[in-house]
Amino acid sequence: MTEFIYLSAWGTVLLLVFLGEAITLFAAYWRLDQMEHHFIASQFVATDRKRLGNGPLGRMKRVRQIGALTGLVTYPLMLERPTVMEAERFPVHLKKWGAVPRSLRRIAFMGACMLLLSLGFERLCTMVSTPTSDLKLLYVAALIACVVVAVAALLVRTYVSFFKLAAIESFLKESYFVARNQRVLGDSVYGRSCRLYHISNILCLDYGYLQASDPEVIPEIDRFPLPLRRWVIIPARMFGYSVPGFVAVYCAAMIFGVFA
């Protein structure tokens, strides 16, 4: 029965991914031209049209790029500020063709992570309950430490996103992207998390990149209070180091046959 539930859960994850891709494919052939028509001032969409072409994968990629402009802004898109500004005026009835597949992929990713964690926890319980070597226990302890650090970082970031975010954003009033994220991403758990994630990014970016993408924020970063900076940076680094650390420890254990 447990195995059936586990397989059904993985089937649901794959179904969500397939459904998201199906919606993207539909939008690529029946909504893409309407979506691209709203981007006039910027050359970003026009460049993507020429670079990616009109094949199925190219058109789907173009839909995802437009969808990304209406969500969390990544590093490359920060350099396309005019395009992001145009995306704020994007019609709601077209925005959903990028937002819905993105939400489905996000749910599928979170579900896959939860399933992998449950599988890892089950294997860990089995491993600990049977006689094992000291070396294996050492690797298991290292993996547990990485997971604990990652969970602690996520909990701290959740706390900061609800109880410190307003104070943090009050020191970045001149930043277009911080204000844009407030308008676009909203006050949901995911929206607040994305807003905090973006702030942690801009606090770590070099000034050359910020000068090209969000120059108004540079003086504010110079005056940004150290206590609030720690609330933003330390959890981000904890999570950023724990995930590669987990992968490195696990891969090392597999390479040296510790978990064989």
TrEMBL record:
Note the superkingdom of the native organism: Bacteria
Segments crossing the lipid bilayer: 6-30, 103-121, 137-156, 238-259
Question: What are the protein's UniProt keywords?
Answer: Membrane, Transmembrane, Transmembrane helix
Name by which UniProt lists this protein: Uncharacterized protein
The protein's organism comes out as Pseudomonas jessenii
